[in-house]
Design brief:
Helix 2 (48-66) packs across helix 3. The radius of gyration is 21 Å and the shape is globular. The protein is 42% helix and 16% strand. With 364 residues, the protein is of the alpha/beta class.
């Protein structure tokens, strides 16, 4: 089979943002032709990793039927991640081998390699060979290479890996990144211009996201939703509880074993939890994205031990700049009410700019 587009991203079956951005990018690219995703385990010894993962999955499934502890709950959640991936973003046609590079399982072919989004260029997670692979080093000149909303995930590039970026970025037909700092890094290293575009999750309308939900949450459930990658301070936790009590809601906690019912949520359930929440407290980038998509009032807490906006990473800074939402990030308390009429206007404007960039990049 010949694919128009091949997505190279991080294959993370445990990360909500990763799975949802991969799905959204696939939907976006399907407008231009048939699209699939590479199974990417580029820093493993071989593609045998996938077979090992399948064996582990069988063992965990048996365990989950026998026990109901934290390991069992993690399995239930991860099973949902894999089911969602297999259904909506299958990655069984192409995979990486460190020894052989890109492998096509059925001798499939593709025209355009699309790298992104997520932190695909975060060199701290990769070997030097891994960095080169994430920049499309395996692609011949017969294929176009572009990046969509790619992220470095860091504010500075170490000197020993700069030459890799300087070698491969100039081969790109078009470069787009997710953060302002990412565009600056491309310019500093290569002199090339990179365009800041919206994260793929923000490019899909609300109704498109609701299509994949599966009634994980009762319609009459009144709850405050929290999703923290760090741990809220005692003061922040008091703010959450105070808001819930004042508005006659309970607290549902994603990624927190204190809330077993919510802990097992898969990516589709993650979307639904945001769609039905009364309010959101978070420190997560993609939690902000889905709060915006579903018009939720939300507060972004600085992570414990970090004070002030100077500690925001570039993806948060860029998101808040694009939507004029600097005031939602605070150390404690409650953020000012968001004007969603203005946010929707900015969202449509930024979607138009991002679509126009992608249309041009996909020409030819």
């Amino acid at each position: 089979m010949r694919y128009k587009n091949l997505i190279l991203t991080i294959s993370d079956y445990y990360n909500y943002g990763n799975r949802l951005q991969n799905y959204a990018l696939r939907v976006l690219l399907d407008r231009y032709g048939l699209t699939t995703t590479i199974y990417s385990c580029i820093d493993d010894l071989s593609s045998e990793r996938k077979k090992i993962d399948l064996l582990k999955d069988i063992i965990k499934r048996v365990y989950s039927l026998l026990f109901s502890d934290s390991k069992s709950l993690r399995y239930q959640k991860n099973r949902k991640f894999r089911n969602m991936s297999m259904r909506f973003i299958p990655d069984d046609c192409f995979m990486f081998s460190m020894k052989r590079g890109l492998i096509s399982n059925q001798h499939d072919t593709f025209d355009t390699l699309v790298i992104g989004s997520d932190q695909v260029w975060n060199f701290k997670w990769l070997t030097k060979r891994g960095v080169a692979l994430r920049l499309g080093s395996f692609v011949s000149n017969d294929h176009s290479v572009i990046s969509y909303a790619a992220s470095f995930g860091v504010s500075e590039i170490d000197d020993d890996v700069k030459p890799i970026f300087q070698k491969y970025l100039p081969r790109f037909k078009a470069i787009s990144v997710r953060e302002d700092r990412g565009a600056e890094l491309v310019k500093e290293m290569t002199g090339l211009d990179a365009t800041v575009v919206l994260d793929p999750t923000l490019m899909l309308p609300m109704n498109k996201w609701l299509e994949i939900t599966e009634n994980f949450v009762p319609d009459d459930d009144r709850y405050i939703l929290t999703y923290f990658l760090g741990r809220p301070s005692d003061e922040q936790e008091r703010d959450i509880q105070a808001y819930a009590k004042a508005h006659d809601c309970h607290v549902r906690r994603i990624f927190d074993l204190r809330d077993k019912e919510t802990y097992v949520a898969g990516p589709q359930d993650f979307v639904e939890l945001f769609s039905k929440a009364q309010y959101v407290f978070t420190d997560s980038y993609h939690a902000c994205c889905f709060s915006i998509l579903f018009h939720k009032q939300f507060t972004v807490f600085n992570r414990a031990g970090m004070n002030g906006k100077s500690n925001m990473n570039s993806r948060m800074e860029t998101l808040f700049r694009l939507f004029d939402l600097d005031s939602v990030m605070i150390d404690s308390g409650l953020a000012p009410e968001i004007d969603y009429e203005r946010v929707d206007h900015l969202l449509e404007e930024n979607r138009r700019k991002s679509r126009n960039w992608l249309d041009k990049a996909m020409e030819g």
